[in-house]
Design brief:
The protein folds into 3 domains: 128 residues, no CATH class; 66 residues; 108 residues, 2-Layer Sandwich (Heat Shock Protein 90). It is an alpha+beta fold. It is built from 11 helices and 5 strands; from the N terminus they run H-H-H-H-H-H-H-H-H-E-H-E-E-H-E-E.
């Protein structure tokens, strides 16, 4: 909104300034705001129009306005263009040499105009030809606008310096935050490697040893499955650790709905009956939606393994017009010893993941027994 107002002001300002200088120049030659001129009105209007056009282009080119203002003041005591030229000289002239050159030239031309007015007759000689009036008009038309322009330029320089300093401080703050985040990521990666990766590696080694020395084929098959799942967990863990260690993480391939059957097969291999139901026409979805749906099913099946034992589970993937709905519903557990310890943060983290992409998550016991997890993920 502010940028739009600034652009509108930049477009309107030259027109307003040019029109104002034109009208004031005409008024100064009519005697209401200056010395009345006996020249024909078309000539006076032409000079005033030249002053207005020069003022219109003053933000791009200053010297045409200076020349027109000097000629108009010396010839007709037409002051508006000279006032605007002095103001812009204070804001535009950066080098001291140019500034002193302008001041010297305008003082000389103003003195020449006073001399011309002094040699004139009548009202002009009285108003613009006396020494006191020449000094007063010089201060009003040259000194005050020039000082105002210099003050505006100095203020702009101070504001620019403060803005640049604020931007530099912001960049430094962002850099410090990035460094702190990278250090924290590295610390978390080290702790995960020391705690989790070590124990998962031991689990895989023990599963391999059990597979070799298994007393029967069923035990060997279970040990093989445990080792396979453990190695996959190590692979995923290494990917996560790589992301944590990298200051600009380039994530590897993330799981999508195409990998959902493989996830279900792992649960079936552990003795759980898992049924998949797809509803609605399948269509390509945003990667974030598919990845979130996969993680919802993965966490829900993990909870089934922990707390529901061998309970039969149904997984529903419903393609809605504006969202993807995933429902994981398990029956009541039949084994009394199926409950395993958990962190208690699985569903909490899952809800945060779903809400982060603008979705919703519902989880709780079913009326007929069992448990249900329902997630609605935007997929428009």
């Amino acid at each position: 909104m502010i940028d739009r107002a600034s652009r509108i002001a930049e477009r309107v300002m030259p027109w307003a300034l040019g029109t104002t200088v034109f009208l004031l120049s005409l008024a100064s030659t009519a005697g209401s705001m200056g010395v009345r001129s006996a020249l024909p009105v078309p000539v006076l209007a032409s000079v005033a129009a030249c002053c207005g056009v020069a003022a219109f282009f003053a933000r791009r080119r200053l010297w045409p306005l200076v020349v027109v203002g000097a000629v108009a003041h010396t010839w007709l005591v037409m002051w508006p263009a000279a006032v605007v030229a002095s103001y812009y000289a204070g804001t535009r002239l950066r080098r001291r040499r140019d500034l002193w050159l302008y001041v010297g030239g305008m003082v000389a031309l103003h003195a020449l105009g006073g001399l011309v007015s002094y040699r004139s007759e009548g009202y002009r000689a009285l108003v613009a030809g006396t020494l006191v009036n020449v000094l007063l008009m010089g201060g009003a038309m040259l000194g005050l606008p020039l000082v105002a322009g210099l003050w505006v330029r100095a203020r702009r320089q101070v504001l620019d310096a403060m803005r640049e300093q604020a931007e530099q401080l912001l960049r430094e703050q962002v850099l410090r935050a990035d460094q702190a985040r990278d250090q924290e990521r590295a610390r978390i990666a080290r702790e995960m490697h020391d705690v989790v990766a070590h124990r998962v590696s031991l689990m895989v080694l023990h599963a391999g040893a059990l597979e070799v020395s298994a007393p029967d084929a069923r035990t060997a098959q279970a040990a093989t499955l445990i080792g396979s799942v453990g190695r996959e967990a190590l692979t995923n863990l290494r990917e996560v650790l790589g992301v944590l260690r990298s200051p600009d993480p380039a994530r590897g391939p993330q799981p999508t709905l195409a990998d959902l059957d493989r996830l279900l097969e792992q649960s079936r291999a552990l003795g759980i009956v898992v049924n998949r139901h797809d509803e609605g026409p399948a269509r390509p979805l945003p990667p974030t939606a598919e990845r979130t749906a996969y993680r919802v099913v993965q966490e829900a099946l993990t909870n089934v393994h922990k707390h529901a034992g061998d309970a039969e589970t149904d997984v529903y993937v419903r393609y809605r017009p504006a969202e993807l709905e995933v429902v994981i519903r398990n029956q009541s557990p039949t084994a009394a010893d199926g409950d395993l310890p958990g962190s208690g943060w699985g569903l909490v983290g899952l809800r945060e993941r779903v809400e982060l992409v603008g979705g919703r998550l519902e989880a709780g016991p079913r009326d007929g027994g069992g448990f249900q997890v329902r997630a609605g993920i935007p997929a428009a």
